[in-house]
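We treat protein structure as text, and this decision shapes the records that our systems exchange. The tokens are whole numbers drawn from a learned vocabulary of local backbone shapes. One such record is reproduced below, unchanged from the form in which we store it:
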Amino acid sequence: MKFSGNQRRVYLLALSLLVIAVALASTWSLWGKPAADNETPQNAPQASQGLQASQESEPSQGSQPSQGSQPSQGSGSDPAAAPEDSAASADSQNAPGGEGDSRVSTIVYYQDNYGYLVPVMCSVPMEDGIAKATLNMMVQSVGNDMQAARLGLRTVLPENTKIDLDISRGLARIDLSKEVLDMADAAAESNMVNAVVQTLTEFDSVDRVEFLIDGQKREKLTHGTSVAGEFTRGDINLESVEPTMSEVSVKPVTLYFPGDSGAVIVPVTRMVHSTPDVNTAVLELAKGPSNADMLESVVPAGCGLIDVTVENGVARLNFTSEFVNLVQNSDGGRMALKALVLTCTQFDGVDSVEIYVDGKKYDATEGELGVPTFMNVADSIVYDYIQTQSAMLFDFE
């Protein structure tokens, strides 16, 4: 990218302001308890694409995030409820970080400017009731909104929302205060419900979620979003299904694309007719996102997939010569390579990825094809964004 003298000055100023904002936010987190611990974050709009509830009644397995959760078809009986603090305390021991650490990692579901749900691994102070503390980070407030903005994301619960949570025998019963009845539209309601379900089912002790609104059971929210019955983990950011597709003949496959900001990876569920294996996933990934204005393609324009083979846990992806144009991305192709690795290693039997171009091994910088701990890690997002912008700024050729 080329810059004129005035453009460079403006860009330097913007980058400097970003660094100052990050420094102030870090100082705040060290010297004062963030408002996120006590308040609830923001109300956010949602993309119209891929936000329909899935029809699955069984929770998905593993830690892969998903959207479009649907009430399960099981009975709505209420198990004996244990106090939330003790139940969620067990959750805190399940979260990465380990018992006894002063901080623990937890997965928070935000949304981007287009309404795609984006899971982010955040480091928070260790405390009893970590599940409820995680949900409180998703409520609109000054502290929560600042944290989300640093990531280029937004919170999903309305300002001043109060949360009560009880977890017992795999069922998380969440009571949201009346503020959730004043959301902007059905899309915002759906994103809020899906984000809550995905966040809670990240904990090993939760496989079902039941909603109460202001202490009462409801069938629907104000704009028609269902909150009846028990919800299980569904498909995240489900792309719209073609009318010709039969629900019986298609199956979901999760793809990972860089977000439009280039700083986060967005998981997307696409329905396919073929077997949802690594070959299908890479082929679909190479086709690109259904809406290129909202997500970035992983492979360069004109690039084709020659073949995919898996041997001894290594997936070898062979692309046409256009793949080398990946380095022209503002980040040198790092996020695209990360998306490729995440898409492949979600499948059993795939532990690592190698890239080939016309049969010759692609010479990626060391570490670019490493398997990430998680798709989005809060501290890395901020650092990577600054690095990417700096690279763009000083590319004068």
